[in-house]
Amino acid sequence: MTRKYLIFLVILLISISFSVHAQVVVLYKCGEPTLESSIIRPHINIVNRGDTGIALNDIVVRYFYTNEGLTPERFQIDYAVLGGSRIMINLEYGYAEISFPGVDMIIPPGGGETGEIQIKINRSDWTNYDQRDDFSFNPTFTAFKESPRIALYYQGTLIWGTEHFINPSPTPPVPIQ
């Protein structure tokens, strides 16, 4: 009888945990709607619509785009309510990964948010990107809206949005020293 209750309790805790975290969403606004542009400008805001606070340092967001060339890329945080120094961005082949390591902040339940985060990505030679084939890009999002084409991970598990990895993914170039 005890084992039966233990299994029930584990299932209940997993379902509660998933339902709470599944209510964390990414809002997106397109900061550069031009189809061919030297910059990509996703603006994001992470919102907790659940009923439990979420630790921001447990969250990673991926914005998927296509780097059509092998030119090295750079990023800049143009603006962030949290402060740009508290945000880490890694540019991988096919996506920008946004994380918050070391940020000791809880996104409050019931609509708490990170506030706007404006990111700019460009190539070192400022050549144009073709955003038409960028999975997360949507030029019609001129105001913040839920964007399921941006992935949000909580403690390494996808809980919002859709992943879009280019297969096969070529090995990114290694910088010449």
How would you characterize the overall build of this protein?
By secondary structure, the chain is mainly beta. The chain has one domain (2-160): Endoglucanase-like (Immunoglobulin-like), CATH 2.60.40.710. Helices cover 11% and strands 38% of the residues. It has 1 helix and 16 strands. The protein has one helix spanning 2-21, and strands spanning 24-30, 36-37, 39-40, 42-48, 54-55, 59-64, 73-80, 88-92, 95-99, 106-107, 112-113, 117-123, 129-130, 145-146, 150-154, 157-160. The strands form 4 sheets. Strands 1, 3, 4, 7, 11, 12 and 14 form a 7-stranded antiparallel β-sheet that branches. It has a 5-stranded antiparallel β-sheet with strand order 8-9-6-15-16, with no helix packed on it. Strands 2-13 form a two-stranded antiparallel ribbon. Mean pLDDT is 86; it is low at 6-21 and 168-177.
Q: What's the main sheet like?
A: 7 strands, antiparallel
Radius of gyration: 18 Å
- Mean pLDDT across the residues is 86
Number of strands: 16
What is the terminal separation in angstroms? 65 Å
Q: What is the succession of H and E elements?
A: HEEEEEEEEEEEEEEEE
Name given to the CATH architecture = Sandwich
The total tally of domains equals 1
Q: Identify low-pLDDT runs.
A: 6-21, 168-177
The percentage of residues in β strands lies in 35-45%
CATH superfamily caption:
Endoglucanase-like
Helix share, percent? 10-25%
Q: Structural class, judged by helices and strands?
A: mainly beta
Morphology call: globular
The number of helices is 1
**CATH class label:** Mainly Beta
- CATH topology descriptor: Immunoglobulin-like
